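Bug #2210: token dump truncated for Respiratory nitrate reductase subunit gamma?
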Amino acid sequence: MNVFLWGVLPYAAFALLIAGLVWRHRYDRFGWTTRSSQVYESKLLNIASPVFHYGILFVLAGHLIGLFVPASWTRAIGINEHAYHLFSLYGGTFAGVLAVAGIGILVYRRRTNAPVFRATTANDKLMYVFLLGALLLGMIAKLSDTSGNGYDYRSTIAPWSRSLFTLNPKTELMEGVPVLYHVHAVVGMVLIALVPYTRLVHMFSAPLQYLTRPYVVYRSRDPRQLGPRPDRRGWERAGS
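Reproduced locally. Full output below:
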């Protein structure tokens, strides 16, 4: 089981991610969207969407730093382990609260607005369960030990994560990891595998063409230069 969870499941999740992205791009390119429901309700969405997106971006940034920046690097720039732990604890908790609050408002909006709820698919519900579960488990694991420097995941989980990229996973490093971190990691890997098959796929969309496209210039119509507007056809007249 240890080998399967930490030596097989990560690659299976990554393979499903890549295969799903390729499939969606090839056969469901027009479905590569969040299916915005702003037309049905915008007040709560204008609050929840920025809160969730900023929160989840901070969460992802924290995970990237915690897992892929070795402790020796942070010590080299003068950040000791205690300072790093405090930043990780308070910064990570704040980011997690933002993301969870955003999801909470989004779910409330979907449950209380009939047109939005009818537009909610089974995949959306599954995505919310795993995304919220991953966030809550990570926060609980982080807050379960606030004494001293907390659990030193940078000596176990982080090296294991980096070893996956060398195709030589050090599964033995995960043997003594607390159960909450185990569950959090497994839920996170399942969530990664689900990304291409849910609305989360839009995180891989980048409108790069906007960087090079020409500007669109809008000009108002000046009757003094262009003259009066021509009469509309009968079926285009106001009130027809």
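Output looks complete on our side. The longest helix spans residues 81-112. Marking as cannot-reproduce; reopen if the truncation happens again.
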